[in-house]
Amino acid sequence: MAYYRRMGDIPGKRHTMFRKPDGTLYREQVMGTKGFSGIQSILYHHYPPTAVGKAEVYAAFDIEFEEQGALRHRHLLTGDCSDTGDAVAGRRYMLGNEDLLIAIANVDRPMDYFYRNGDGDELLFVHEGEGTVETMFGTLRYRPGDYIVIPIGTIYRVIPEPGRTKLLAVETNSWITTPNRYRNAHGQLLEHSPFCERDFRGPEKLDTYAELGEFEVRTKSRGHIHLHMFNHHPFDVVGWDGYLYPWIFNIADFEPITGRIHMPPPIHQTFEGNNFVICSFVPRLYDYHPEGIPAPYFHSNVDSDEVLYYVRGNFMSRKGVKEGSITLHPSGIPHGPHPGKIEDSIGKKETTELAVMIDTFRPLRVVKQALAYEDSQYMYSWCADSQEASRTV
Hints:
Helices cover 3% and strands 39% of the residues. It has 393 residues and is mainly beta. A hairpin with a 3-residue loop joins β6 and β7 (100-107). Residues 386-393 have low confidence and may be disordered.
């Protein structure tokens, strides 16, 4: 969601002398995407952002996927995952492909190090909890329902308030932005967009730390986590301006698009990246044609895998899902409402469901550690007697 922002102190013109009170120069850093052709921001540091006292490999970043099995619908009960940790090391990966990884995290402690993703943007959806994300661009406060978008290369750490923060994390190898069809040629959101610029929150304050010492920054890149020991605090920025920075959009600010008959999933689209889209299913009025069927029709994912993360409410087309459930409906086979859900939907006027959908245009694979939370009977739950069906397959 690119529009111009400015925080802190900056010189009147870029690439010119900008001096500290003692007469020495602040260090200018241009941080941009797509070479020098994408969006960018310019940051001004007390110290060179290249001042690293030690660089070494911290750990291999190697996700182990399951072996190829039968093509089937999957259901992961991630609410059963009791593992805890910080917002990065505590991630438990569930699904992934060449374009993104999907994880959950039960965050019960602050990060005692700094982190940056050198491969692509990250999106953190806050299912539960409150806290702050401290970044080189400033601090953002988060609350339930927030989508937190952190651009590639941004140094940050997450500080939860006491109690648990539950996150859905999407790590990409590309960018995350709003759908192009919602914007005009100048980048402004159009009148028919389900949100506008007022709904987006950038950093609230810029705290500058000029202290020297040893500060651990872990960087994810090239299949490894790298350790860079800075000689200064990485949040030494006195000011910045531009179009590249972390931002937040709350799912409650998504204004649903409705119609007389059932509308297809693209009306729920909120973000897009390379080979994937992210959609928001929010409380909304149902279809109002006198003979309309609110439940979705059966449909085939011809060229995309569909993932749903269930946040709360009674999802109108599903049985057996819980808060924190993740379902995967892969391309190649059709999916649709569970038995009885079509009939149950007739005559209903609204829904209070809340869910995040991720559609990928390359096949997803299930991470081995996610198998511990799988509902193995989900594929057969469309049969009248799923237990009997499972014995005959």
